[in-house]
Specification:
With 97 residues, the chain is α+β, with helices and mostly antiparallel strands. The chain contains three helices and four strands; from the N terminus they run βαββααβ.
């Protein structure tokens, strides 16, 4: 199992644009075979930081997601409205309940 936690700081005045892009992305992601979980979360301390929590059945499923045209389109939309550096952490699950 592969998990990904991504943090994207969004310019406050572009938050609505980012939400539209996220909804479009999630519409496509929901059809992926190897995706187990994909959610957008907002940091309580800083509501301009979008945090994505994702789980994939394996690295191949993550590769399919990361190379998809809709993911690339999402990233093209998000880079110009990000207020800082994107942080992406890929994790190998050891154990879970």
């Amino acid at each position: 199992m592969i998990s990904v936690i991504s943090k994207i700081p969004i310019k406050p005045e572009k938050k609505e644009d980012a939400l539209v892009a996220v909804k479009e992305l999630i519409r496509h992601v929901s059809k992926e075979d190897g995706i187990l979980h994909h959610s957008l979360n907002i940091d309580e301390k800083n509501p301009d930081i979008f945090i994505f929590i994702e789980r994939y059945k394996d690295r191949d499923a993550l590769k399919v997601h990361s190379s998809s045209p809709y993911f690339r389109k999402f990233m093209d939309k998000v880079f110009p409205i990000a207020s800082g550096r994107l942080e992406i952490n890929v994790l190998n699950e050891i154990d879970s309940i």
